[in-house]
Amino acid sequence: xxxxxxxxxxxxxxxxxxxxxxxxxxxxxxxxxxxxxxxxxxxxxxxxxxxxxxxxxxxxxxxxxxxxxxxxxxxxxxxxxxxxxxxxxxxxxxxxxxxxxxxxxxxxxxxxxxxxxxxxxxxxxxxxxxxxxxxxxxxxxxxxxxxxxxxxxxxxxxxxxxxxxxxxxxxxxxxxxxxxxxxxxxxxxxxxxxxxxxxxxxxxxxxxxxxxxxxxxxxxxxxxxxxxxxxxxxxxxxxxxxxxxxxxxxxxxxxxxxxxxxxxxxxxxxxxxxxxxxxxxxxxxxxxxxxxxxxxxxxxxxxxxxxxxxxxxxxxxxxxxxxxxxxxxxxxxxxxxxxxxxxxxxxxxxxxxxxxxxxxxxxxxxxxxxxxxxxxxxxxxxxxxxxxxxxxxxxxxxxxxxxxxxxxxxxxxxxxxxxxxxxxxxxxxxxxxxxxxxxxxxxxxxxxxxxxxxxxxxxxxxxxxxxxxxxxxxxxxxxxxxxxxxxxxxxxxxxxxxxxxxxxxxxxxxxxxxxxxxxxxxxxxxxxxxxxxxxxxxxxxxxxxxxxxxxxxxxxxxxxxxxxxxxxxxxxxxxxxxxxxxxxxxxxxxxxxxxxxxxxxxxxxxxxxxxxxxxxxxxxxxxxxxxxxxxxxxxxxxxxxxxxxxxxxxxxxxxxxxxxxxxxxxxxxxxxxxxxxxxxxxxxxxxxxxxxxxxxxxxxxxxxxxxxxxx
Length: 711
Description:
The protein has seven helices and 65 strands. The protein is mainly beta. Among the domains are: 1-74, no CATH class; 112-156 and 257-290; 164-255. β1, α2 (40-50) and β2 form a beta-alpha-beta unit.
């Protein structure tokens, strides 16, 4: 045994274990009826008993085996089914690492396998499986997700593809913009909503601006086609800044159970229906329904200077949780900010509304940290979940979320949020110094479409680096959370070497591959690769400094194929944008929208590529544009038509643009990319961009790095 092994106390847990045992692995000549513990709660209890000064069980452990050194807890392969989350408090603090035993594959699951299926016929479909669940009929169990053979099954929706559009919103004046919500009624077009079976279990999911709203149906009048929803809207029932009403679809419609892989739970009957895919048989198909919403919470009491510290989870799979509208007052199942505290701006709460205002910011994490320090989730899999994957909340310091795969989420991947600058206890509850690196975050927003891959609100000194983020309906990374120029906790954050692509899917609007808010001194966006951003009505951007985004350094990024612009600054001041490649926007390559009296950004040594769209777009006049930006030493290349800039509705040549005092030393020339059609932006050795001082951008380190040891 080497020195490192001798310095560790090892405990074991197995689905075949027993919480009355010692937690040792059986050894030759060991006494009978001993071995691993059975549950994570058993491990927690054992660690309590073994702490110095506790009344530990001397029949299981010797005096010198009480806690005096770090602990490694090895999980044997198998499923550890949870009905409530494991909650670790400051009392549990000790250097403890949970990891798999050798190459075995433990799963911490919030679900239960459903068996006992029978075959029936319904909706004129054969080979439909059905099972009766007494707990559902008794109102003791209601789940909203189902996972079949390792993938999400879908509830039946209407229409199967595409969206409906509301016909009329009662009591709402048009045109309408963002805000002014509170509506619960709309008139649909004939045939879209009907007197469905289990009508109140059907949900209206309507899409406008940058959010989805979701509400059950309270009533429907077939004579007038009036739909009354259970929850009032957050914003007016329009899709964008216009008189165009919101698009919507209906979720959980029993009559639409028709496609293989769909399922429906009848709460009234206590009956679960599933329409199998080809090749699936009841005996060999794993069907899991979730029992709980969260799996793990590390919760300290920072106001009493009590923190959860030095607890790590490595190489473990977390899976199978449910979703519902978050309710912080429900302490039975929701681990989050204490409802008894004085409300603070960071504690987002949708109340009875059908949505949060942005980014599904009130949706909790399946793994939750509050008042935690120097803890980690590394090389784990978090998948088939209903909410965010990981949440780092108030008063956390030094949390590592590194090398994980976070897939198939109802919301987003990682959410960070502490006290805002205006909060009275900001010094106690501020959060920062975290690492969110080398993760793959994909297939998110399946329920809460507006959720973000990595959402960092009111947090400082956070490294969001080397992640692969894709297949979301809203932004890839969001950082900030102050609208305007007031004091902002978010500062000194590094967003670098991320691979972000295929977001938006034309479902929502106003998003960015990287989206920022507020004054963020010291924050850097560097060496990110972002492409394929597509929006519903407006606002598909690769990098998007929004309201008040200021003092950012944006450099060495490669951004292309956005359906609006690769770069959009709404308003902000004194951002430095240098040495980036911006290519191919549906409307322009770059845009800066709000008129302000100060310089918004400096734009220097960038390569801009157009396929016929203007390089810069502004709806303001030349006179109002004066002094707003400083732009020089850039290279412009137009694949189609002559290069131009569009200001106040007029197309300007480069000379006219230069007459405004901009780009006096910039050039129009082919930058000599290796293969522009294949989006290979490697520059030739004789590229004219190099003469301008442009530094070639190395994308070889973008995305998660190979696991070669501790990062």
